[in-house]
């Protein structure tokens, strides 16, 4: 199915191509359309990398302004969104470096960790486990859980699984190799799964004496 | 197939990028391995939960501020 979709996409120009062309001729309303289309995602990525709301707001603004200023340099070899994400990732890392003066911040350093490489928590989850929490509680659990991951894992997971970018687009956005994206994605997914299990696993019901557990 | 071999193919299975033969092998392993079945279903659930819940809502007014900043930049030459 993915193959059919990608073939169809190759034959039709991406709708952003026409918008970018209009921006290049000075049509600012076309840029507004691109902003409305992607501002939420760019804010989300910036927030995931910087972990700071103020920084994420600044990054979103700076990334869109920079993309606007450099729009003539956009050649259309990649999707506009992939190009925009790359700018936003770089802006986010610059913000982090400013905050942590002297400390290098990078998302391409390989993180040596065995955590999550072998699933430990093998208990099944309750059906629809999120139903046991309010929306606010759930958002807090999801935030806390993903914040515990190394930044390089977090951002790969968000681009691939939340934003729906392909492995190749994720690699391009982050300046990583495809195998590096694949290895991080697997570890990110498994670590998140392991950490969420604490909240979502099926509660064990104590068996009553004399009652057969398989009787329904 | 061992659990380690299954785990190495977990992402490809979730992303639907396995060959028909590989899929058959993975399903064969799943039939006899509850642990891997749970790992697969809960990993899928993990992705689905993060995909369907926005954990960082964009602050109200940010879009307008950005629009103003772009218009301001445009005054210097679009």
Summed up, what is this model?
Chain A is mostly helical and 216 residues long.
Question: In words, what does this structure look like?
Answer:
The complex is a heterodimer of chains A (216) and B (78). Chain A has 216 residues and is mostly helical. Chain A is 63% helix and 0% strand. Chain A has helices at 2-11, 15-24, 28-50, 53-69, 80-99, 135-147, 151-162, 167-174, 178-200. The longest helix of chain A has 23 residues, at 28-50. Chain B is mostly helical and 78 residues long. Chain B has a single domain (3-75), classed as Arc Repressor Mutant, subunit A (Orthogonal Bundle). In chain B, helix 3 packs across helix 4. The longest helix of chain B has 19 residues, at 34-52. The N and C termini of chain B lie far apart (60 Å). The mean pLDDT of chain B is 92.
CATH superfamily of the largest domain in chain A: RNA polymerase sigma factor, region 2, helix turn helix motif
CATH class of chain B: Mainly Alpha
The domain count of chain A comes to 2
From the spread of the alpha carbons, the general shape of chain B counts as elongated
Report the CATH topology name of the largest domain in chain A: Rna Polymerase Sigma Factor, Chain: A
Counting helices, strands and paired strands, the structural category of chain B is: mainly alpha
Rounded Rg of chain A: 21 Å
For the residues shown, what is the average pLDDT of chain B? Answer: 92
Q: What is the CATH class of the largest domain in chain A?
A: Mainly Alpha
Rough shape of chain A? elongated
Number of strands of chain A: 0
